[in-house]
Amino acid sequence: PEQIWIIGGPGQGKTKILDQFKSDVQSREGKALILRHDTQEALEEWLAELNRLSKNLLQPVAVAVDNYHENHPARPHLEELWKHIRYSRQWDPQIKIPWLFVFTAEAELPAHSEFPTTFLRLRNFNPEEMKECLRRLAPKKDAAPPEEFSKKLFQHTQGNPQWMTSMLKVLGER
């Protein structure tokens, strides 16, 4: 199995990336199991499906937890699953377990070192990066955005790429 950590502050698009990821997995006829809420009901539904899927570790599955943190209620269950995976590997070190674990979090947490891990760190644009993005999005090739527009957009979005995109969409619809 592999792990992907998507790290970023509130509103930076972590959940949106998970939605896109889920769509991509499902378009390839894979199983995507995402836990979005810490509620007991959501956790129980997610665990029931996780337990069902974990009976066949050879089936490709993507497991995701949105807003994962140190005391997340899913953590002990994931630790049990990882223990099961390690045990399976002891019996057959060559076994390929096509599971992918994806986590979104506001801060980096320790990853399991025995699984290949990728970190995707989201951050806000600085004013120059925002101008460059606007220049690339301009209808005319390489047209520089008006300085006042760039400043106001940065003030309203604080450089958050998701908020910037949303604001540009709204402005484009007007």
Basic shape: elongated
**Unreliable sequence segments:** none
Strand tally is 5
Rg result: 20 Å
List the helices and strands and how they pair.
Blueprint: E1 2-7, H1 14-27, E2 31-35, H2 40-53, E3 61-65, H3 75-91, E4 99-105, E5 117-121, H4 127-137, H5 147-157, H6 161-173
Parallel strand pairs: 1-4, 1-5, 2-3, 3-4
Helix pairs in contact: 5-6
How would you characterize this protein structure?
A 5-stranded parallel β-sheet has the order 2-3-4-1-5, sandwiched between helices. 46% of the residues lie in helices and 16% in strands. It has 174 residues and is an alpha/beta fold.
Features:
174 residues, alpha/beta
Quick recap:
This protein has 174 residues and is of the alpha/beta class. It has helices at 14-27, 40-53, 75-91, 127-137, 147-157, 161-173; strands at 2-7, 31-35, 61-65, 99-105, 117-121.
